[in-house]
Amino acid sequence: MNRVVITGLGIYSCIGKNLEEVKESLYQGRSGIGFMQERKEIGFRSALSGVMERPNLKGLLDRRLRVGLAEQGEYAYLSTLEAMKNANIDEEFLKNNEVGILFGNDSSSKAVIESTDIVREKKDTMLLGSGYIFQAMNSTVSMNLSVIFKLRGINFTISAACASGSHAIGLGYLFIKHGMQDTIVCGGAQEVNPFSMGSFDALSAFSVRESDPTRASRPFDKNRDGLVPSGGAATVILESYESAVKRGAPILGEIIGYGFSSNGEHISQSTVDGLLRAMRMSLKDAGLTPQQIEYINAHATSTTHGDTSEAIAISEVFANCNPLVSSTKSMTGHECWMAGASEIVYSTLMMRDSFIAPNINFDEPDEYSEKLNIVSRTLNKNFDVFLSNSFGFGGTNSSLIVKKI
Amino acid sequence: MEKQEITKKINAFLVEEFELEADQLVPEAMLKDDLGIDSLDFVDIIVIIEKNFGFKVKGEEMANVKTLQDFYDYVAAHVNL
């Protein structure tokens, strides 16, 4: 079995457009949430969202490579460019090695809706142009990035709701561990346009604390009233330890455990049992006891049911050891398909720079969260092992464990 | 519409949308080999023609359009029908 290490990270999110900006936001406990008037105008119950600038890739990428990129693909291009750069992967390496891509993405609503509108209006598919097909498929991110970066290894998309990014890294870990690939570009991407979030808004799952956007996402807090949708893209380059050492690549951490489960119950509500099994499986895979986990980056999205299930599950798995816990979604909002990957980026940055980012807006615990060791203010602390949880609709769960080496 | 105006409009969108350099746009330029316009780009050209000249191209009609001059002539023939 190969050891699997992280050699590159990249991020484009509402708390920063690159690793250093994001690290600073995490350290400062800075929220990226804002109020989007446009959403009110089209009938959203909640107009809160992670706010980010749409990148302009003209000049960076040829037209042919841009037309098939959906919004989240643009973010993913930039996060992958950053990750490749800090992993010291260049065109020559990509030409001489079978580098793969496994990206989490579970919608591309804007392209689907716009192209459908055009066909309805014009009644002629020939007036759609060439880009929509490559933007509209769920695999839009992996299909475009594999062409842009000329990747020649494994190539597909993981659609697993809000655990997509985490499973993408988990699968990348398994492929490398079993010797089937040496290097895989893993990650997750999430569109932020309003089209992507209307049907989610319909579930009344979003916070309506619109008068105070940066205080709206409050995982584990007694007075939370729902999640805040967000997005962007995160890239985590995984590589076999042997390959990383051979080429002198930076090693930012080692993936040592992947656990997963399916609840087999409700379509939108998590269960304690499913979360327990995913976390325990990751510990078993890593060969660690619960006492050895120093920090948990919780999935906690700021919904009462989800946060409560996770708090109970963490309390049970980590009874008597009480590791530090925070949900970075308090700052970023819920980055959905991207979250499982971005939270590996956030936590790895914290491990690199010896701090734990705060679970902001955690003002008052409830009866379940009071049992957790939640970090509500930035904590300067050296730590070597963390666990990151990601859960999604349909009851798909994923837990990853990363260790400093 | 005057031929000159058609030429100007076509050149403008080739520069704007396809990011070609103005000095590449000589009438004898081969669309595929000289200007790098591939089969997917033709799909986008159909949309641009509809927006700029108000007629719908039939895909198969473009098969004989090889040079930029062919393209000007093709559009002129349809616009001035």
Poorly predicted runs of chain A: none
Oligomer: heterodimer
CATH level 3 topology of the largest domain in chain A: Peroxisomal Thiolase, Chain A, domain 1
The first-to-last residue Cα distance of chain B is: 10 Å
Rg over alpha carbons of chain A: 20 Å
Largest Cβ-defined interface: A-B, 12 and 14 residues
Can you describe this structure?
The complex is a heterodimer of chains A (405) and B (81). Chain A has 405 residues and is of the alpha/beta class. Chain A folds into two domains: 4-246, 3-Layer(aba) Sandwich (Peroxisomal Thiolase, Chain A, domain 1), CATH 3.40.47.10; 258-403, Thiolase/Chalcone synthase (Peroxisomal Thiolase, Chain A, domain 1). Chain A has helices at residues 19-28, 37-41, 63-66, 71-86, 91-96, 109-122, 131-136, 140-148, 164-177, 198-201, 241-246, 272-286, 304-317, 329-332, 339-353, and strands at residues 4-13, 33-35, 48-50, 99-104, 155-158, 183-190, 232-240, 253-262, 295-297, 324-326, 355-356, 373-374, 379-380, 385-392, 396-403. Chain B has one domain: Orthogonal Bundle (Non-ribosomal Peptide Synthetase Peptidyl Carrier Protein, Chain A), CATH 1.10.1200. Helix content of chain B is 51%, strand content 0%. Chain B contains three helices and no strands. The mean pLDDT of chain B is 92. The chains are: A alpha/beta (405), B mainly alpha (81). The A-B interface holds A 58, 62-64, 67, 124, 126-131 and B 17-19, 38, 40-41, 43-44, 46-47, 50, 56-57, 59.
Write the layout of secondary structure elements.
The complex is a heterodimer of chains A (405) and B (81).
Chain A lengths: L3 E10 L5 H10 L4 E3 L1 H5 L6 E3 L12 H4 L4 H16 L4 H6 L2 E6 L4 H14 L8 H6 L3 H9 L6 E4 L5 H14 L5 E8 L7 H4 L30 E9 H6 L6 E10 L9 H15 L8 E3 L6 H14 L6 E3 L2 H4 L6 H15 L1 E2 L16 E2 L4 E2 L4 E8 L3 E8 L2
Parallel strand pairs in A: 4-5, 4-6, 9-10, 9-14, 10-12
Antiparallel strand pairs in A: 1-7, 1-8, 2-3, 6-7, 8-15, 11-13, 14-15
Chain B lengths: L2 H14 L22 H15 L14 H12 L2
Helix pairs in contact in B: 1-3
